[in-house]
Specification:
Elements (H helix, E strand, L loop, with lengths): L2 H13 L8 H18 L7 H13 L12 E5 L7 H7 L4 E6 L2 H13 L5 E5 L2 H4 L9 E7 L4 H8 L3 E11 L4 H13 L2 E10 L6 E9 L13 H4 L4
Parallel strand pairs: 1-2, 1-4, 2-3, 4-5
Antiparallel strand pairs: 5-7, 6-7
The structure holds S-adenosylmethionine.
S-adenosylmethionine binds next to strand 2 and helix 6.
Length: 240
């Protein structure tokens, strides 16, 4: 990472009330790993230092704006892709255990290699689809927190993620554009799945001033046994 990149990361982190100075080396290693991994695996379209810092690292850290994740012991990151938000969050929250899940095995293998090379002992990985985990007793109603960045529209995400939560657990969904219609559909899906729309926070990302929303859903009762429906159906036929 260049000296300008370090300053950008520190300034943007400060806007999120985070002192990232102790983590500069880890973020520099993560940047190198992403650029290297991208040569072979086509992990991300964002390849400039500025974009990687603001749109991957800072954007991922902003998933915890309300402190819903750093306050938990365990977080499952659903649809982690190239490790976002898991890897940035795991760097700054060493006491929180992350489980990074994605349907694409090559991405999960990259996340595993990268976490190991950064010495992140608080990151585990799993290559699977949410619809399968939601019917697996090792994961159904077992997790305290599920986070998801840029995975699916809220009603789809609700069906994929809420079955994984313990009663009282929280789904923290970070969204770019969030329409009133998507939010209303997400609220209806949450109710159908024994959950409630608990909190919505709209904010701007540091420096870029891009709009983001964090939507928090809370599980109130056991998910009806018919959910999640079989693989692919939640996105092909959203509940609402
Ligand atoms: N969260 C990452 C980020 O913000 O950069 C990746 C976002 S990418 C647009 C969506 C990811 O979700 C993909 O890697 C995809 O494989 C994964 N995904 C989509 N549906 C899934 C499902 N049903 N189960 C598991 N992973 C899924």
């Amino acid at each position: 990472m260049t000296p300008e990149g370090e300053l950008l990361l520190l300034d943007a982190g400060a806007e999120l009330q985070l002192d990232l100075k102790p983590y500069l080396l880890a973020f520099a290693q993560l940047q190198s790993a992403l650029i290297e991994g991208n040569r072979q695996l086509n992990l991300t379209a964002l390849t400039t230092e500025r974009d990687i810092i603001l749109k991957h690292f800072i954007d991922s850290l902003s998933c915890d704006v309300g402190g819903w994740l750093s306050g938990a012991g365990h977080v499952l990151d659903l649809g982690t892709g190239a490790g976002f938000p898991t890897l940035p969050l795991a760097i700054v929250n060493p006491a929180v255990q992350f489980l990074a899940v994605d349907a694409t095995r090559k991405k999960i293998e990259y996340v595993s290699r990268t976490a190991a090379s950064l010495g992140l002992s608080n990151v585990e990985v799993l290559a699977s689809r949410a619809e399968l985990l939601g019917r697996d007793s090792a994961h159904r109603e077992q997790h305290q927190r599920v986070v998801a960045r840029a995975v699916a529209a809220l009603p789809v995400l609700a069906e994929l993620a809420l079955p994984l939560l313990q009663i009282g657990g929280l789904l923290v969904a970070q969204k770019g554009q969030l329409s009133a219609e998507e939010l209303a559909a997400g609220q209806q899906a949450a109710a159908e799945l024994g959950s409630e729309l608990f909190h919505v926070k709209h904010f701007e990302l540091p420096i870029s001033r891009d709009q983001r929303s964090v939507v928090v859903m809370r599980k109130l009762s056991a998910t009806p046994s018919r959910y999640p429906r079989r693989e692919g159906i939640p996105s092909k036929q959203p509940l609402f």
